[in-house]
Amino acid sequence: MIAIILVGGEGTRLRPLTIDRPKPMLPINGRPFLAHMLDRVAATGVTDVVFSCGYLPDAIVAAFGERYGSLDLSYALEPTPLDTAGAIRFAAEGRVDGPFLALNGDVLATAPLQGLIDRHRAVGARATITLTAVADPSRYGLVTCADDGAVRAFLEKPAPDALPPGPGPHWINAGAYLLDRWFLDVVPYGVRRNIERDVFPALVGKGLHAWRSDGYWNDIGTPETYLAANMHLSGGASVLADGVQVHDGAVVEGSVILERAAIGPGATVRDSVVGPDAVIGAGAVVEDGCIVGPGVAVAPRSRHSGERLNGEVVT
Fold it and tell me: Are 81 and 34 within 8 A, CB to CB?
């Protein structure tokens, strides 16, 4: 079986970390995020992975090449942004001859994908989407299903008064799909299409099913969720990449410090991300979700809370 992984987005919500590095290559607990995803895919018996690339693809190719463990890797470079369905269709051209997995390349999850495959086969679905339960679905697309798992409707980023009655759980699209080859016939090649808005709603009542997954799930696309993913896999400890220097008297808590960054004497970094080659000056305080960009120098004894710091020197 083939898996197509979407890695073409620009990761704008994580700027400035993604100015010169694609979001799927950001480290989670010391490893590129994509390494975690490939481990999950390999556990299903998938043999081939196609990366649907757009933004900064060379970094992904350089890191993974043509082989990762038992997986053969290849790359499909979109000529222009094609959105989710268009990107899947583009990457599938000439490669797909049966059911295949399609995965968003920014979701850290632990539920075995074999459950998705088994569900798809058991009900004879044309497409099966993975769902995950959340307390607040307002950031996501709410999916409602019949008792047999057939999808009934989609509600995009629902307001509180639009939610079904009761405390939940609320089931949202988890960004992992099993699609049959019909997908190639209904999505035009080389045309921009969105799978959540253009494809799945049109398939309601026509063989679209859902698999309710369990376990950890996190879309790593925001500073808060990126930090949360690192804390989850590290057991809550601060994450220090290779070459990081933490000087005497410095305090680092609940944070991710990327390659070769330096935390000056007496500085405090709390619940924040410090980019590669950045320098936090002596006595500076960086806290409450700050994102310090690559190579940024934060002035000694300055204070920053919840900011995105970019530029050569920040005072």
Answer: no
Is 298 part of a structural domain of the chain?
yes
Q: Cα(230)–Cα(232) distance, rounded to whole angstroms?
A: 5
Which helix or strand (DSSP H or E) is residue 33 part of? helix 33-42
Q: Do 60 and 89 sit in the same domain of this protein?
A: yes
Strand partners, 133: 171
Q: Which residues contact 313 (CB under 8 A, 6 or more apart)?
A: 296, 297, 299
Where are the alpha helices (H) located in 43-113, listed in sequence order?
57-64, 83-92
17 neighbors 291 (Cβ within 8 angstroms): yes
**Residue bearing tokens 């798992």:** 149
Domain that holds residue 200: 2-219
Question: The whole model's pTM is what?
Answer: 0.91
Q: Which of 95, 157, 181, 247 is catalytic?
A: 157
Verify that 64 and 199 share a domain, yes or no.
Answer: yes
CATH number at residue 189: 3.90.550.10
Q: Are 169 and 182 in contact (CB under 8 A)?
A: no
Q: Is 206 a catalytic residue?
A: no
Residue 228 lies inside a defined structural domain of this protein:
no
Domain count, the chain: 2
Q: What is the pLDDT of residues 224-271, one digit of tens each?
A: 999 999 999 999 889 999 999 999 999 999 999 999 999 999 999 999
Average pLDDT over residues 23-40: 95
